[in-house]
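Please describe the entry underneath.
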Amino acid sequence: MMNMYGVLHGPLYLDGLTKRETQGVAHEVQWNGKLQAPDGHDQFHIFYYGDLDEDDLILWHDMTPLLVYAEHTVTGERYLLIDAAEQGYDAMLCETYPEEDVNNRPLRPYLDVEGEDTFEVHLTAFYNVPWDEEFGEDVEEDGTYELITGERVHFNEVKRNGYDAFAIRIRNRKGIDTEIVQEELA
């Protein structure tokens, strides 16, 4: 069985920042959420590290993982949407990245093709990894699991943040949608 725990709850670091979306019949391995600040605000500026391709997707810069934040348009508070160096299957189990690269990822503002800088943010995480079946026997008695970095975290956190793909779609004030992240992470 796939990771229903992740599908039901979504990424742990987005707790309290999203409103679950169910558009029609949800795919059995997919979680969808709309970013919403604790105060109910749902308009954000996007800041990112990476390169833009010809379709305005944010990609890794060389071998350095992408990083994307949303910024509350009133308070300026920033919310992490994805850090491909920390979240996702590969970052949690397979790959480590040079500290000097990960710590040197200057952010820049995202403007869509219309020149807009304020957006609704829709997030999708895919949970195709059967964590319990493949890794359940490696969970410690206290419920923790060791990541590739040596850090021990609760296995439920691994199942929620260890998604195998992640997407971000933004909608500007004119109602135009743009896919800005389509990241395969396993």
